[in-house]
Amino acid sequence: MPYFDEKNETLSEEQLRKLQSERLRETVRRSYENVECFRRRMDEAGIRPEDVRGVEDLGKLPFSYKSDLRDYYPYGLFAVPMEQVVRLHASSGTTGRRIVVGYTENDLSMWEECIARMLTAIGVGKADVVQISFGYGLFTGGFGVHGGAQRVGATVIPISSGNTQNQIRTMIDFGATVLCCTPSYAMYLAEEIEKLGVRDRLKLRVGVFGAEPWSEKMRAEIEAKLGIKAYDIYGLSEVMGPGVACECPEQSGMHVWEDHFLVEIIDPDTGRQLPPGESGELVFTSLTKEAFPVIRYRTRDVCRLIPERCRCGRTHIRMAKPAGRTDDMLIIRGVNVFPSQIEEVLLAVSGGEITPNYRIVVDRVNNTDTFEVEVEMSESFFSDNVRMIETFERRITEQLRSTLGIGAKVRLVNPNSLERSEGKAKRVLDLRAGKI
Amino acid sequence: MVIKQLSVFLENKPGYLLCAADSLAKNGVNIRALSLADTAEFGILRLIADRPEEGRRVLSDLGLVVRLTDVLAVSMDDTPGGMLTVLSCLGEAGINVEYMYASSGSGRRAVMSLQTSDTARADAILREHGMAEPSPEDLA
Known about the structure:
The structure holds two protein chains of two kinds. Chain A has two domains: 325 residues, ANL, N-terminal domain (Rossmann fold), CATH 3.40.50; 101 residues, ANL, C-terminal domain (GMP Synthetase, Chain A, domain 3, 2-Layer Sandwich). Chain A has eleven helices and 20 strands. Chain A is globular and about 75 Å long. By secondary structure, chain A is α/β, with parallel strands linked by helices. In chain A, helix 5 crosses helix 6. In chain A, 31% of the residues lie in helices and 24% in strands. The two termini of chain B are 15 Å apart. Chain B has a six-stranded antiparallel sheet with strand order 2-3-1-4-6-5. Chain B has five helices and six strands, in the order E-H-E-E-H-E-H-E-E-H-H. By secondary structure, chain B is an alpha+beta fold. Chain B has two domains: 68 residues, VC0802-like (2-Layer Sandwich), CATH 3.30.2130; 69 residues, ACT domain (Alpha-Beta Plaits). The chains are: A alpha/beta, B alpha+beta. Chains A and B meet through helix 11 and strand 19 of A and strand 1 and strand 3 of B.
């Protein structure tokens, strides 16, 4: 089992807690001294930095939120002078103004290391040609994975996202063995490759996909269509970018690199820490970041940690795929609905062979929520027989009802009529704003 | 005789049918007969074209979901009662008609396109009863 950094990836429980405690104390001290927002919250809560002796005191610390990044835009949360900041990234906020994050030289190096650990674990190294189809630019995806891929000595194709025909040509001509992009774009590429009939000319063997939720079935589908092993990667710009947690060859949960990030699961309503294995909101504290340390950052991702030791030998705790977000979770007629649940149903009903492109449309008419799922028709579901199509439609409706406990109207639409961007798929159209 | 019919999925929205017809016209594909099966949410456009393969290509290129399906085509007298012999042959053999639609052929002939519960058997029975096959002119 190859390691990028065997010592740190296999620290014992005791060594890890000791290291985390030291680093937490230092992060708290530095943040208190340099970040006004954090200092004020600590003072309001009556907590002194020296009250935090180790990881056992984590629960005493105040939370931080995405709105903080908006309120202290652009550099108000940085803990170092701008002279030490060598890179900025930005992403869209949930509302209005974008958010900005910064990195020192050491931060970038740590980020590269996190990605390099993953790539090494899944057997990517000097001999590989890595096509990075994550967007480059202010988005953390492209540059994040880029640094890690270079760190393991791979040949990097920094193609960025978009221009599908060029992506496929490049993949063939340059002999790419590794593809990095969003899972929905991987699906899209797989479909285009199928249409062109050029799969035999690909050398791809590994995919690293992240930045949006995807199901196990989608993984199986991408793996089958492209003939690769597909691995999940997790991250968010507020905490660092992709690579906060990464899958290993076991493909059963993503290791959170615990020497750099402390992870908690909390009850999003009460803020209380939940016991290992329970599902709740994912919260991160950075332990080594210099420019933009985060303390108890509320990700809004709903997730579960996997406390059991991984068979791969790494001791760092794993997190399951996020099951949704506390803030994109739809509440329809009082029922919680996650788009990923709908995707599961559609894949199951269509025989798990292809992902029908779909869109959830929620509206409010006569004070009642309407819930529609538009599903694109494709060759494989189409029949000359009206009854067969209606049966297909009805099976989706029934499955949705039994999965979600709520009725949805299923509407079959023409292929390619739903927006399918080359980046993140737009799955939800909620028209209720201002109507509730 | 068994001929190829184009079946096209159409979402119920203004413009889709026009778009399909326009594209066929521009590519010189002639529509001999057509019917539109509709439900509340979608329709299936079925059509007999002089060049079905080309029609399929043209419609697929538009991004529509298209399938070539086998249907029976029978030539009949375009006079009152012309269709009855066809139906009675099939009825006696216990073959169900799923859908059918007619178009005029050459001279005083009409062409009926039929989908039945058993295409091969229906074809054999209609041949046994001496039902005429459409001439190339009927389908051109």
